[in-house]
Give the backbone structure.
Amino acid sequence: MATLAMPTPAPAPAPAAATSADAALLPVYRRAPMEMVGGRGIELFDADGRAYVDFTAGIAVNALGYGDAGLQAALHAAADGLLHVSNLFRTEPGETLAAKLVERSFADRVFFCNSGAEANEGAFKFARKWARLQGGPAKHEIIALRGAFHGRLFGTLAATDRPSYRVPFRPLAGGISIVERDLETIAAHLDAERVAALVVEPVQGEGGVRVLDPGFLRELRALTQARSVLLVLDEIQCGLGRTGTLFAYEQAGIEPDVMTLAKPLAGGLPMGAILVTADVAAAMQPGDHGSTFGGGPFVASVANYVVDRLSDPAMLAHVRDTGGWLGGELRELAQRSGAVRAVRGVGFLWGLDTHESAGAIVARARDLGLLLVSAGDHTLRIIPPLVATREELSRGLAILEQALRRP
Ligand code: PLP
C-alpha cells in the first residue's frame, strides 16, 4: 500500500500548566489561580475567604450581581415547575418571554437558543434564507466589521476579527467577510445582488470597547435599507440595559431587521435569543432551524424575571446616571495615573487603553482584590454588574488606580 508523504507537523505547544484540581479540564482558558466559591452584591469570594470587587460581571452576564434575592426567588419558583419540555410542545414561560421581548423592541418574532455564538449562527442562517427568497442563491454574503467579535463557532468565527482565534481552524465558513469600519468601504462592499446581511455590534466589546457613533449607525441603517441588505445588530454584550437603554440601538434612533441577545438574558443560565421583523420571520419554515434546549420552561421562567428587572425604567436611569459618573471618574483616574492612553465607553461598559500590557494590570488588580477583564492586548474592560452603586464602584476604582501603578 502506498504511503502518503505527509509534512512533519510542527510540535504542539505544551499545554498550559494545570493544577492537580483542573487537570481534567481542556486547557483553553488562561484561568486565574483562585477558585471562586460565592458572591454577594458586586463581590466574589474565593476558597481562601478573599473578597474581590467584580468589574467583570461574568463578562457582562451577571447584571444583577451575586445573590440577588429576587433572582434567587425566581430560580426556586422555576425549579418547582417543568425543567425541560421539547419544542414540539407549547410551554408558557417561553411564549411570555417572547411576547415581552416583542413588546419592548422592534421585533415581531423571537427564536430562543443557548448562547451568544448560537444566536449569531441562527441570525446568519435566517438572513441567508430571507436573502435567497429576495435575490436567489447568489445573495448570501454576510459582512462584519473590523474589530468585531461575534463568537467562536464556524460561521461566527468567520465574522470575528481575531487572527489568533481564526487561523488554527481554517477553512472557516465561506461567504462571510470583514471590512473596515468606514462608510465608504462598507458601501463599496454592500452589493445588493450578493450581500444578505451586515452584522454590527453597536458597541464593540471584545474588540476594545468601541462605541459606534449614532450617526454612523444611522448611515448603516440607511445604506442597508437602500441596498435590500438586512441590518443584524449583535447586542449580546451591549444589550439588555448595559448602555442605559434596554437596547443600544434605541440611542441611535434606528431599528434593525434582526438582533441577537444572550449574556445577561437568563441571569447566568445559558440562553440566547434572535429577534426578527415579520418580514424576516416570513422566510422561515418549520424545519429551517431548531434547538433541543432553546427557550425551555426553566430558563425562560428565570429570563422573564431578569428581563423585567432590566427593563425597569429606574434600573435604566441608574445605569445612565451612574454610568455617566463612572465615565467621569475613569477619565480623571486616567489623567492622574498617566498609565492610560484613552477612555471610551457608555453606561456600564468602558474600555481603558493602557501603555502597559492589559494582562499585567489585570493580574496586579486581582492580587489587590479587583477583578478586571481585558479587551485586546492593551485595553482593560470595565463591565460591573448593573446594580453597582457609586460607593461600590468607588471601592473598585481605588483598587484600579493602585493597580495601574507599575511596581
Ligand atoms: N457576540 C458578542 C458581542 C459577544 O460579546 C460574545 C461573547 O463575548 C458573543 C457574541 C459570543 O457569545 P457566547 O460566548 O455566549 O457564545
Observations:
- The first helix runs from residue 57 to 60.
- Residues 53 and 396 are 6 Å apart (CA to CA).
- The domain at 82-311 is CATH 3.40.640.10 (Aspartate Aminotransferase; domain 2).
- DSSP finds 13 helices and 17 strands in the chain.
